[in-house]
Input
Amino acid sequence: MDFREDQIARYSRHIILKEVGGKGQEALLNARVLIIGAGGLGSPVALYLAAAGIGTIGIVDMDTVDMSNLQRQILHNTATVGNSKVESAYQTLTAMNPDVKVVPITEKLTSGNVLDMFRAYDVIVDGSDNFGTRYVVNDASFFLKKPLVSGSILRFEGQVIVIEGYRDTPCYRCLYPEAPPPGLVPSCSEAGVLGVLAGTIGTLQAAEVVKIILGIGEPLTDRLLVYDALAMSFRKVRVPKDPACALCGPSPTIRTVEGSTDWVCSI
Amino acid sequence: MSVLIRIPTPLRSLTNGQNEVREAGSSVREVLDNLTARFPGIGERLMDEKGELRRFINIYVNEEDIRFREGVRTTLKEGDEMSIIPAIAGGSR
Output
């Protein structure tokens, strides 16, 4: 591919990295990434991916921007309060890099539409706020064989893992076989979240997405990264593929995407 | 013999805000029993009515998930570190 002059300037710090180069930058420009949630995690993920020149960024969210979002959701700003989050994201990302085709999706993600929604993308990023969605996203990514970069945050702690359960690495159900029942754990609005934590975890997710597209380094596929902002500690624990996994084990009982995304945000 | 236990932020309200506590015991079960005796309420957050570890809470001894060892019967040695890591889902709203 022939880069335009403005593209050579824009992506020069990538292109001079031998692990990226012109070829790698071309791969980024041709890549299609879908981000679930235009919130705390989706914001830094989308901004860094747009800056990196990811060709197509789909972003799914049905909420509108609320003043209480602005403490951490840096895609949005005071002027977009009340607007659709994905429209607000569209404006911010397009202003950041007009090379990027931003696809705003206001639909609610459900087990019924998830496969059609995911099909056109190369990598899925989960920045959702509830367990129901996390299992639906995991299962759909598994059936469609799409790498899933999962991140989650609560209070002062965050977790990141790359999920490719269709290979010999674990899926989200291997890590957490079941979601907590609602009510057993405090809701996110009660629990709170340190705003900058979203930036730390979302940026790590963006790094994994770029590595996957470039095919460089070691993906975080069989380790869970746990970040504690108070202790300023990053720890990795081993996550084996569960031979009893209902989705990706040898005797699966889950054969289609099921489950509900109507979950309250818990723990 | 005692081991270091890392407490995740959602459970620190039950450990007087401490992120790490030391507890005696030669198995995960013994350590959890002692932890619960010292910090009432933490046991039911980690285990169900049958005393089984809840399926959205993982306990790691050093880097290894005890589900893939001997569960709560996993034995411990001096210097081991236990981490309690619950599923969390926040990110968007």
Notes: Residues 63 and 211 of chain A are 30 Å apart (CA to CA).
